[in-house]
Amino acid sequence: MKISLTLMNPLEDYRLAVEAEALGYDAMWFADNPILWPDCYVMMALAAQATTRIRLGTGISVPGLRLAPVTAHSVASVNQIAPGRTFLGIGVGGSGARLVGQKPMRLREFGEYLRVLRGLLHGEEVDYAGESGTSSIRFLNAGAGFRNVEDRIPIYVAANGPKALQLAGRYGDGVISMSGEDPDTIASRMKLIQQGATAAGRTLGDDFYSTIVTAVLVLRSGEKLTDERVINGTGALVTGMLHVTYANYQQTGDESLVPPFMHGIWEEYRDYVESLDIPPERRAYGLFEGHATHCLPHERRFVTPPLIEACAVVAGPDEIAERVRQADAAGLSELSLTSPLVTQHELMHDFTEVMKRL
After folding, report:
1. What is the mean pLDDT of residues 137-153?
2. What per-residue confidence (pLDDT) applies to 307?
3. In terms of C-beta density within 10 A (0-12 exposed, 13-18 middle, 19 or more buried), how is residue 353 classed?
């Protein structure tokens, strides 16, 4: 089982990749959201120059922000600096799309986007539909040091739902999902991925790569979910789930989409949002201040033990190690850890106690 980190950091924190490499982590994923965080490809390039072993990729790139050839060019440019250490995580887009006024990409368009990406990153010529019509394109100036597609750049498709998982099997070299590290969930996802591969005439090899991103906090002896350190280490991610849920609710008006684990607090959170001095059309946007990086003081009361347990893996090192072993036995390739900004460095070091037990 590979262990990695998914980060949403200021630019100067690319140096965390150096420390993570020294601690034995296998990869770092850099988040993509132009309204919230620095450019993921700039972060990758800085980390690439400062490291020698650790793998570096996007976690996850948002297709609606860049044309497919631009995304391929960006990741291949970083691969020139860190040959063979670069990967591309990509999904339809969530907050990264919504905060610039776009909807997540439709799956049919996403499949076409992946087709173009895959061809270009394999050094092939592909048909590409631009504004002036469809034409054949390929990278020029091969071997001139502008980019590197000779060293393989795997594409990891972000997917949790059935259709997206099937797309991962059709076009991806791997899949990245949010949470669900239990063996049953891993098995059910792989079944859908296999269906997509079969429909495309692909045979997935043993090297098909599966990653799960999950919030983690390693409990210390005697700690409880109501303790300050636990709330600090999970709060921004718990409230981040509430932000996304409210944004989906505002778009659809459908409260049946609210996850069951929020039912005890959803009404209070909805009423809180609608009491804010923010015009209705700006509510979802305003909520994303601090999203997944900082827990704002006035949202702290929503970080309850039930939501912490639902949104994060919070346990002692022995229990977490056992859960990792079970996921490994079920076929998971990599577990990627994430946490709020204030506790990322702490998590990096705390989780080494889990790694010693694996």
Report:
1. 95
2. 95
3. middle
Tell me the C-alpha distance between 63 and 57, whole Å.
15
CATH architecture of 2-214+316-355: Alpha-Beta Barrel (3.20)
Instruction: Report the C-alpha gap between 80 and 94 in whole angstroms.
Output: 29
Is pTM, for the whole model, over 0.90? Answer: yes
Q: How far apart are CA 4 and CA 6, in angstroms?
A: 7
- What residue segments make up the domains of the chain, in order of their start? 2-214+316-355, 228-308
Q: What digits encode the pLDDT tens for the residues 25-83?
A: 999 999 999 999 999 999 999 999 999 999 999 999 999 999 999 999 999 999 999 99
Q: Give yes or no for a cis peptide into 265 (omega within 30° of 0).
A: no
Distance set, CA 113 to CA 110, 123, 130, 208, 310 (Å): 5, 16, 12, 20, 33
Strands (E), 99-224: 126-130, 133-137, 155-158, 174-178, 209-218
DSSP 72: H
Residues counted in the chain: 358
Q: Is the pLDDT of residue 154 over 90?
A: yes
Instruction: Please check whether residue 185 is in contact with residue 132, taking contact to mean a CB–CB distance below 8 angstroms.
Output: no
